[in-house]
Design a protein that fits this description.
The protein has seven helices and 19 strands. A six-stranded antiparallel sheet has the order 4-3-6-1-2-5, covered by helices on one side. It has a six-stranded parallel sheet with strand order 10-9-8-7-11-12, sandwiched between helices. Strand 11, helix 5 and strand 12 form a beta-alpha-beta unit.
Length: 349
C-alpha cells in the first residue's frame, strides 16, 4: 500500500525560469500500477544528508497520452524543489508512489461545459483535466481563467496557446497578469469581477457542469463563494490546495492525557501510546511505522485512514467531505485522539 517504486527520469523540460517538468519512464510491468485519472498526484521520496523528503506533485499529462509527467516550481528555501530545478538530470532515478488524489475528472459519453480557475503552479492538475476533456469528450468545451505575475512566469503558456489553436471552438483561456499589462489579457488578480465576467458575461450562454479550482487558499475560497452566490452547487465545485492553511480548528473533545493507538497498515497491526496533543501520524513515524503520508499539512489524502474504534478530531481539514468524516475517515497528519483507545485502518480506504 505504501510502496514506492524506482522510476527513471526520461526528460527534464524547463517550463519557466523557476519551474521544470519531470517526465518519467514507466516500465511495462508497472503500467497498471501507475495508471491514473486526470488531476491526480504522485508522491516523490528523496533521501538527503538531512533525512528523507517526501513531496506531492500533480500530474500535468493526460492519462491516455502515454506520458507521465509532473511539474515542480522552485520555492525559496524549498528542499526538493531546489534540487529538482537545479540538480536533477535525465537518467536519474527517483522513488515514486503510485498516483492518488480526489481532484479528478472522469470522462463520459456526454458533452458538457467545464471551467477552471487556477493561479501559478495550480495549473498543473488543471492542464491534465483540460487535455482529458478535449481528447475524451469530443463535443465538450473548457474555459480556463489563469492568473500569474507575468507571461514569463506562466507555466505551460506556449502549450496552452497550442491547445487553443488546435481546439479553437472548444478551449478558451482568459490570462490574467498582476504585474504586467499584455494584449488580449486581463490585468490584476482573480477576484469577484473576474468570476462574474466569465460566468455572467463572456460565457453566459455556457452551462457549466463542473468548476475546478486550484491555487492559493484565499483565491479558492473567494472564487468558491462567488460561484455559490451565483447558484452553483457545492457538489459542482472541486478544488485542490497547494499550500496548507494557517487556521486550526478548535478541538472539542478531551485532549488531556494519553491514548493507546492501534494502527493497521499493509495487513499488520502496530500499537503505541501517545499524548493526545500530538498528531497520530507524527507519533506513528516516530515509532518507525511505515504509514503513507506526503504533505503533512492536511491538503492531500495520502495519510487518510478510517477510525474503527474510538474517536479523533482534526486540527485542519481541507479535503475530506462531511460524509467522509461521518464514515470515520481522518487525515492522520492532523488528527488528535480524544478517547483512551483509538484504532485506525490505513488499508480500509
Amino acid at each position: 500500500m505504501n510502496k514506492f517504486y524506482p522510476l527513471k527520469i526520461k526528460e527534464i523540460i524547463r517550463e519557466t525560469s523557476q519551474a521544470v517538468s519531470l517526465s518519467f519512464e514507466i516500465p511495462e510491468n508497472l503500467k497498471e500500477t501507475f495508471s491514473y485519472s486526470a488531476g491526480q498526484y504522485i508522491t516523490i521520496k528523496y533521501d538527503t544528508d538531512e533525512g528523507e523528503i517526501r513531496r506531492a506533485y500533480s500530474l500535468c499529462s493526460a492519462p491516455n497520452s502515454e506520458e507521465f509527467k509532473v511539474t515542480v516550481k522552485e520555492v525559496e528555501g524549498g528542499k526538493f524543489s531546489v534540487i529538482a530545478n537545479n540538480k536533477l538530470t535525465a537518467g536519474d532515478v527517483l522513488e515514486v508512489h503510485p498516483p492518488e488524489g480526489k481532484f479528478t475528472f472522469t470522462p463520459n459519453n456526454n458533452s458538457g461545459d467545464y471551467a477552471a480557475f487556477a493561479a501559478g503552479s495550480g495549473i498543473t492538475p488543471v492542464l491534465s483535466i483540460i487535455k482529458s476533456v478535449l481528447q475524451e469528450e469530443s463535443n465538450s468545451r473548457f474555459v480556463l481563467t489563469y492568473g500569474n505575475k507575468s507571461v514569463d512566469d506562466t507555466i505551460f503558456f506556449k502549450e496552452l496557446l497550442e491547445l487553443q489553436s488546435k481546439y479553437p471552438d472548444r478551449l478558451f483561456v482568459e490570462f490574467i497578469y498582476s504585474r504586467t499589462r499584455e494584449e488580449n489579457a486581463h490585468f490584476g488578480r482573480i477576484e469577484t469581477s473576474t468570476v462574474n465576467y466569465v460566468i455572467k458575461n463572456k460565457f453566459k450562454d455556457n452551462s457549466f457542469e463542473k468548476f475546478y479550482l486550484c491555487g492559493p487558499e484565499q483565491m479558492i475560497n473567494h472564487v468558491s463563494d462567488v460561484l455559490k452566490q451565483n447558484g452553483v452547487k457545492d457538489e459542482n465545485i472541486k478544488f485542490e490546495l497547494f499550500t496548507p492553511s494557517n487556521e486550526e480548528k478548535e478541538i472539542k473533545g478531551d485532549t488531556d492525557g494519553s491514548t493507546k493507538v492501534t494502527i493497521r497498515v499493509d495487513d499488520e497491526d502496530y500499537s503505541f501510546t501517545m499524548d493526545r496533543n500530538s498528531f497520530v501520524l507524527d507519533v506513528a513515524l516516530e515509532n518507525d511505522i511505515d504509514v503513507p503520508y506526503s504533505c503533512q499539512g492536511g491538503i492531500c489524502s495520502s495519510c487518510m485512514a478510517r477510525i474503527t474504534e474510538g474517536k479523533a478530531e482534526m486540527s485542519k481539514n481541507q479535503i475530506l467531505t462531511d460524509d467522509e468524516i461521518e464514515e470515520g475517515f481522518i487525515l492522520t497528519c492532523q488528527a488528535h485522539p480524544t478517547t483512551s483507545d483509538l484504532k485506525i485502518d490505513f488499508d480500509d480506504v
